[in-house]
Amino acid sequence: MGVIRNILSSRSNKSGNFFSVLNKTLGFKPKNVLHYRKAFTHRSLNIKDEKGNAISFERMEFLGDAILGAVIASHLYKVAPGGDEGYLTKMRSKVVSRKHLNELGKDLKLIDHVETNIPKDQFGANIHGNLFESLIGAIYLDRGYKYCKRFIYDRVIDPYVDIEQLEGQVISYKSLLIEWCQKEKKDFEFEVYEDTGNDEMKHFAVKLWLDDKVVAKARATSKKKAEEKTAKRAYYALQNKIS
Amino acid sequence: MGVIRNILSSRSNKSGNFFSVLNKTLGFKPKNVLHYRKAFTHRSLNIKDEKGNAISFERMEFLGDAILGAVIASHLYKVAPGGDEGYLTKMRSKVVSRKHLNELGKDLKLIDHVETNIPKDQFGANIHGNLFESLIGAIYLDRGYKYCKRFIYDRVIDPYVDIEQLEGQVISYKSLLIEWCQKEKKDFEFEVYEDTGNDEMKHFAVKLWLDDKVVAKARATSKKKAEEKTAKRAYYALQNKIS
Question: Which of B82, B106, B107, B167 suits A134 as a labelling partner, its CA being 20 to 30 A distant?
Answer without folding.
Answer: B167
